[in-house]
Amino acid sequence: MITRNPSLTDQVKAHIKDRIVNDDFDDDRIPPEASLGEELGVSRTTIRDALAKLENEGAIYRKQGSGTFVNRPGLQIKSRLEEIWSYSKVLEDHGYTPSVSVISDRIVSADSKTATALDLAVGADVVEIEKLFLEDDEPVVLTCNRIPATLLESDHSRDDLPLYEFLDEYCERRLSYYVSEIVPVAFSSAQARKLGVKRGTVGLAFVEIGYDQHNQPIVHATSHFRDDLLRFRIIRRRTGA
What we know:
Layout: H1 8-21, E1 29-30, H2 33-40, H3 44-57, E2 60-63, E3 67-70, H4 87-93, E4 98-109, H5 112-118, E5 125-135, E6 138-148, H6 163-171, E7 177-186, H7 189-195, E8 202-211, E9 217-225
Antiparallel strand pairs: 1-3, 2-3, 4-5, 5-6, 6-9, 7-8, 8-9
């Protein structure tokens, strides 16, 4: 039975998703809402909300008059690009055993791009934390996060935390959302060395500005991905008539 807490719908969603992945449903048919609710000890509303989230993710689909079914192509979506997640979780979802290494944690002067992103003066102090995420000891993701130094209200000894947890704990700011650009890149010599590839190797980069609950910019983040080890998929739906 599912235990009750504020994230009950997400617990139910995760439970159903695990059963989908484990092929627990005969003929890929999801049981009726009433049956699932009785089995898990939750309301039909909670089941309905959990199924709606799974449908939105592309993991299931509804067929009028027939029921709800597993959407096998949708299960190829390991990470949803519109959600905030830790890269360790992304690697886990792709079947890897992740680890993280903090390369550097230092005070630097904001260049023009970072200053513009964070609404600072050029040259203002920012905390720059560079990390490398590995799968089975193979480098996959290189991140560089720049945070206004004035936001850090205590010693930040746990710089290995996921960024949103770091901001919660040490800056007392909640990372609410990113505005992101996804761009192809050719890795520089320094990036290639850290990622274990040749200079000029093509990869993917997320260039992002993170905002808090008051719509204030609190982090300028850049993440570089090895395209040969990690790829993202999305489902694109037709809208309108």
